[in-house]
Specification:
This is Sugar kinase. GO terms for molecular function: NAD+ kinase activity. Keywords: Kinase, Transferase. InterPro entries: ATP-NAD_kinase_PpnK-typ_C (IPR017437), NAD/diacylglycerol_kinase_sf (IPR016064). Helix content is about 25%, strand content about 35%. The two termini are about 20 Å apart. The chain is built from seven helices and 17 strands. The protein has two domains: about 5-140, 3-Layer(aba) Sandwich (Rossmann fold), CATH 3.40.50.10330; about 150-305, Tumour Suppressor Smad4. With about 300 residues, the chain is α+β, with helices and mostly antiparallel strands.
């Protein structure tokens, strides 16, 4: 494909100032609210100004290399990305992860719009790098990194993908009840839900759960578990890890199947026993969820598609 004919999709998000303006109708009312709380409204204005300038600079630079479409993150779930599109994400790590799960291998360039404000594991580039990086990505001379995704598939055919992790459990602070099946074993659980983590997500929520378990136990972890807690596992690993949060033993519930590995050949299956409050959500976004109520079966495995991050 000729570079100038390629579709380039620029993913953007609203700033805190824009969100506040929507909430309070005007900038001045938003200012009054923030300053009344004793916070610095100037920081909101500075962040907004820097981000908008980054968007303008990115659009101008990208137009040299193809047809640019700017897309707000709120439209991601319903947008159909062309299979040959180049995707540029301008924001924080969470925006990159949220974008990746709606793609099918299209290359993603993560750009940090405000390096003084944000760190970014998934944001290796600055706005000023876009011209050279875009050309290299289009000509295939830039390395990429494959990112494994998790998939939750319900018995009614619905699916949900995750780049970092899946949460399966209650909608609020009540116990999750379900039957868990993996590797020919099964148990009935009452817990605070499960986390199924990818390699990319293994240094986030998953790590904190392992750290909490170690602290409560007050003893050293086994070598392999300790290494997982400290280093996570590779972004392109061909497996996932699951861990159960706060499993409760009783006459009818067990606590042996609380940690393990999920593969395509050994998926994790869950049968919901939650009357009307069970959910599955991905990547910490509670609004991106599937209902998981009594009688529904969820199969969790390694997704067929993967993320493709330009380095």
């Amino acid at each position: 494909m000729e570079p100038l004919s390629q579709r380039i999709v620029l993913i953007v998000r609203k700033t805190r100032l824009e969100d506040l303006t929507v909430r309070f109708n005007t900038v001045e009312q938003a200012r009054f609210y923030i300053e009344h709380l004793g916070a610095d409204f100037g920081d909101y204005e500075a962040e907004h100004r820097i981000y908008q300038q980054a968007v303008l600079t990115a659009e101008t630079s990208l137009r040299r290399f193809g047809r640019v479409q700017k897309l707000d993150r709120s439209f991601l779930p319903n947008f159909l990305f062309p299979p040959d599109a180049l995707v540029v994400v301008l924001g924080q790590d969470g925006l990159v992860a949220n974008t990746l799960k709606y793609l099918s291998g299209q290359p993603v360039i993560g750009v940090n719009p405000d390096p003084a404000r944000w760190d970014g594991v998934l944001l290796p580039f600055k706005v000023g790098d876009l011209a050279s990086i875009t050309l290299a990505a289009q000509t295939g001379t830039r390395p990429t990194r494959s990112i494994t995704m998790a998939r939750a598939r319900l018995s009614d055919g619905q699916e949900l993908h995750a780049v970092n992790d899946l949460f399966i459990g209650p909608r609020s602070h009540v116990s999750a009840r379900y039957e868990i099946q993996i590797g020919g074993r099964s148990e009935t659980h009452s817990s605070s839900g499960l986390i199924v983590s990818t390699g990319l997500g293994s240094t986030g929520w998953f790590r904190s759960l392992l750290a909490g378990a170690a602290g409560i136990a007050g003893q050293s972890m086994r070598g392999s578990i300790k290494e997982l807690r400290e280093k996570g596992f590779p972004w392109d690993a061909d497996h996932l890890h699951f861990t159960v949060r706060e499993p409760f033993p009783s006459k009818t519930t067990q606590t042996d199947l609380v940690f393990g590995i999920v593969t395509r050949d050994q998926p994790l299956r869950l049968l919901s026993q939650m009357a009307g409050y069970g959910v599955i959500f991905s990547d910490g976004i509670e609004t991106d969820f599937l209902e998981f109520n009594s009688g529904m079966v969820a199969t969790i495995d390694v997704a067929q598609r993967h993320g493709n991050l330009v380095l």
